[in-house]
Amino acid sequence: MAETKQISVPDIGNFKDVNVVEVLVKAGDAVKAEDSLITLETDKATMDVPSPSAGVVKEVKIKAGDKVSQGSVILLLESGDAAGAPVAQPAAAAAVSPAPAAQTPNPSRPPLVRGGGAAPSLDKGRAGEGLAHASPAIRRFARELGVEVAQVRGSGEKGRVTKEDVQNFIKAALAQPRGTAGGIGLRVAEMPVVDFARFGAVETKPLSRIQKLSGANLHRNWVSIPHVTQFEEADITEMEAFRKQLGTEYAAQGIKITPLAFLLRAVVEALQQFPDFNASLDASGENLILKKYFNIGVAVDTPDGLVVPVLRDVNQKGIVQLAKELAEISGRAREKKISAAEMQGGGFTISSLGGIGGTAFTPIINAPEVAILGVSRSSMKPVYRDGAFVPRLMLPLSLSYDHRVIDGASAVRFTVYLAQTLADIRRLAL
Ligand code: CAO
User: In the prediction, which pLDDT does 4 show?
Assistant: First the structure.
């Protein structure tokens, strides 16, 4: 049975004749318990008065600009339930958000909720929302739509951001021309749509599922991270001699020892010396999370595209063990038998194209990691030593790094250290 109730301003502390800056509902609106009805503003704070119960607004008794105190009638609410929706006192108390309340200039201010009735929720603006003037309800509305209130121009009283302002902001964003990369404010010219068949025979080949998934990530990483690539050459003449020797010993057991197993160990060695390379920026972009574990992703080329399984705790494993795990995990990757969990938790990635060829390349960082090592094919080169050219096997390394986190000097120190470690693999035993 329907019942019409008067909803009035609850206890708002010592405030009297408080300015109504916004009326958020109109006659005919259906509201839920805790929906904001009006916004009040004192010289100290802005507060929303939530509805104590669900119902339909019959008549609004106040307008923006009115002055109200505790007990002033806000509106008539017809509830669908004779008993009225319960006024959830604990929830009402929770409506006073602790963080903004803590920012109230007068800490000895009495609590806003006493006894029954819904409490107004206070909001003085959150960090990052800068000087924007908006009620808690509008802030919530904007947050739900992913809009930063600080970016919205307020058209209300004293530059207050209204619901319409937020809606107009979204409309304007949606009306941006296609080709605008959202989120990072990058505007690029639209890609031309060309009918290639006008110039000769063509065939349409859909991208694989992996290509589509990794493509989106690669694109994001490429445009949002300032990449720099540092090149280096490591003298792996001795390492190769040792690898061949090991290879012969382990071939009987079916274990193939490739240069990548050595690289994994050497990279961990370098990461231990330079912890910033085994790290990620946190969500605020203001802190670096240093990882104390050494999980290394390895890019694996599969018929369906690139996948990056992660080898765990590489610091705790020897070359032979790593060679075994590499063969096993890259084999499973090619058979599409890698789980999502096996591709997570990395701190650094190696992309080795050395089995195929190449002299150098610029790998794309596997965000949120901050660096990736590209490896190309080793070749014999004349190296000038002690007054003469000597033939040495040189391995090209290409380290791409996030320049927000790593500076050029650190990057070259890292690659020099890595090259020295590979040149003298006795260091790996240290
Ligand atoms: N220089 C010279 N030879 C190399 C080498 C290098 N840097 N790296 C590997 N080789 C040799 C190996 O010793 C092996 O030689 P043999 O067959 O004579 O013993 C041969 O090349 C093939 O090696 P492999 O590729 O089977 O093994 P791997 O451990 O080097 O690499 C894996 C494993 C999974 C990383 C690799 O197969 C792969 O998929 N690489 C492609 C990664 C990729 O696509 N990256 C691109 C990312 S960006 O798009």
Answer: 93
Asked if residue 279 and residue 376 are part of one domain, the reply reads yes
| Cα 355 to ligand 1 centroid, rounded to whole Å | 3
Q: Does 221 sit in the ligand 1 pocket, CB within 6 Å?
A: no
**Rounded to a whole number, what is the largest CA-CA distance in the chain?**
102
191 versus 382: which is more confidently predicted? 382
CATH of the domain at 113: 2.40.50.100
**In-domain check, residue 406:** yes
Per-residue pLDDT at 121 exceeds 60:
no
Confirm whether pTM is higher than 0.85.
Answer: no
Q: Is residue 150 part of a domain?
A: no
Q: Rounded to an integer, what distance in angstroms lies between the CA atom of residue 39 and that of residue 69? A: 13
Identify the residue whose tokens are 């979204």: 170
Residue 194 lies in a domain: no
Asked if residue 125 has its Cβ within 6 Å of ligand 1, the reply is: no
Q: How confident is the model at residue 104 (pLDDT cuts 50, 70, 90)?
A: very low
State the distance from the centre of ligand 1 to the C-alpha of 351, rounded, in angstroms: 9
Residues 6+ apart with CB under 8 A from 151: 169
240 C-beta closer than 6 A to ligand 1: no
**Could you tell me if 242 and 138 lie in one domain?**
no
**Which ligand 1 atom sits closest to the C-alpha of 323?**
29
What is the distance in A from the centroid of ligand 1 to the CA of 350?
A: 11
Residue 103: pLDDT band (50, 70, 90) is very low
Whether 228 and 135 map to the same domain: the answer is no
Range of the domain at 371: 220-429
What's 314's domain CATH number? Answer: 3.30.559.10
Task: Give per-residue pLDDT as tens, 226-236.
Answer: 999 999 999 99
For 24-39, b where at least 16 C-beta lie within 10 A, e where not — what string?
A: bbeeeeebebbbbbbb
Last residue of one domain, picked from the residues 87, 113, 144: 144
Mean pLDDT of the region 167-186: 66
Among protein residues, the one with the nearest Cα to ligand 1's atom 19 is 258
Dist. CA 41–CA 35, nearest whole Å: 18
Count of domains observed in the chain: 2
Burial degree of 42 (CB within 10 A; 0-12, 13-18, 19+): middle
Residues 117 and 232 in one domain: no
* Cα 72 to chain centroid, rounded: 46
Domain membership flag for residue 378: yes
**Confidence band, pLDDT 50/70/90 cuts, at residue 196:** very high
